[in-house]
Amino acid sequence: MERSSVTLYLGLVGPGLVGKTLLKQIEQQAGVIKMSLDVDLKLIAVMSSSKMIFASEEALVISDVPSLLDNTHEKADYDMFVNHLIKRGNRHSVLIDCSASDTFISKFPQTLSSGVNIVVANKKSLAGSTSFYDAIRQASRQSGAHFFGESTCGAGLPVLHMLKELQLTGDVVESVEGILSGTLSFIFNGLIGPNARFSAFSQAVTEAKALGYTEPDPRDDLGGVDVARKCLILARHMGLEMELGQVQVESLVPSSLQDSALSVDHVLSRLPDFDEAFNSKLESARSRGMTIRYVAEARKDGTVRCGLKEYPLAHSFSNLQGSANVISFNTVRYPNSLVIQGAGAGAEVTAAGVLGDILRLASHFGSRSI
């Protein structure tokens, strides 16, 4: 049967680096998407943390979005934003969350119940409380609106899609293990292994910050909470019911530097004091032909943790370069692991993951399959 043309009406929340990159990709690929899938993507609304704009005609011209946002006096209002999506797109409307905010995600179940589909790069909605996670799933089931969040775990890597497909086809996932932080991947790839180039932990952290790999405060990366959120999302997609606080997290921030009142400059200036102790761990691993990596693990038995782990030099986790991510699925069908590896951070790959979710959504409405 011939597939019909599909139009999706998009509302972007968070026109920051990832959001802008997504709009650029949509603009560049619109013709290819139309020709290949017969899908039209119409941007009808954009909301930043303080302002929002709506299409006065059929759709916003993407290249005009920055100037329109600069010149608008319309204050950001989530409820008004969603109502506009409902009015313009009905059940073909899509709210895209590329923000890092948690101020409005509590309204996601209500948004889904109204028939608006949601695609997120912001992992906070999938790593909230169990009751909230269940509310999202229930609202999606009852309304028929879809919720996609592939980019929450591995940026552009098809991690959640693969996990779901393995389980739906009857495979049993025993464990999922991965390097899911581009920042920590960069640090440990540079400290130990075939691509090592740093002489000390403090040097690796300082370089990662200088290159923009870390958050403004590197402790946000070194503390492991971001990896823990991704680990929790994986665990929930495996069918485990648990809260973020139940994930075992190993922090790499020395206890004396964990006080949030300490400035970033102070923390960086004190990190060399801990290099000797950290180097002893590295030397111990090297002497046994091992590397050390910061990994997330979720097991069928309910063990969910993120922290340091040793691997043989020949292991795929030991041979990454730069800030690459890797994830390994150990299943009944793949007892020697199914491995997905690639860039796990950056605006381009994250935005591509979001766009992939949007196109998967279109297939649910009758577009040609991607």
Task: Quickly list its features.
370 residues; alpha/beta; six-stranded mixed sheet; 14 helices; 20% strand; globular
Lay out the secondary structure.
Blueprint: E1 6-13, H1 17-37, E2 39-47, E3 52-54, H2 65-71, H3 78-89, E4 93-97, H4 108-113, E5 117-120, H5 130-143, E6 147-148, H6 151-154, H7 159-168, E7 173-179, H8 182-191, H9 201-210, H10 219-222, H11 225-237, E8 248-249, H12 264-270, H13 275-287, E9 290-299, E10 304-312, E11 324-331, E12 338-343, H14 347-364
Parallel strand pairs: 1-2, 1-4, 4-5, 5-6, 8-10
Antiparallel strand pairs: 2-3, 7-9, 7-11, 9-10, 11-12
Helix pairs in contact: 1-14, 8-9
Work out the radius of gyration.
22 Å
Q: Which whole number gives the mean pLDDT?
A: 93
- Give the neighbour order of strands across the main sheet: 3-2-1-4-5-6
Estimate the helix proportion, in percent: 40-55%
Summed up, the helix count is 14
Uncertain regions spanning at least 5 consecutive residues: none
Quaternary structure type:
single chain
The largest β sheet comes out as: 6 strands, mixed
Reading the helices and strands in chain order gives: EHEEHHEHEHEHHEHHHHEHHEEEEH
What fraction strand? 15-25%
Instruction: Name the shape in a single word.
Output: globular
Question: End-to-end span in angstroms?
Answer: 16 Å
Structural class determined from secondary elements:
alpha/beta
What is the β-strand count?
12
Describe this structure in words.
- It is a single chain.
- This protein is of the alpha/beta class and 370 residues long.
- It has helices at 17-37, 65-71, 78-89, 108-113, 130-143, 151-154, 159-168, 182-191, 201-210, 219-222, 225-237, 264-270, 275-287, 347-364; strands at 6-13, 39-47, 52-54, 93-97, 117-120, 147-148, 173-179, 248-249, 290-299, 304-312, 324-331, 338-343.
- The protein has a six-stranded mixed sheet with strand order 3-2-1-4-5-6, sandwiched between helices. A six-stranded mixed sheet has the order 8-10-9-7-11-12.
- It is globular.
- The two termini are 16 Å apart.
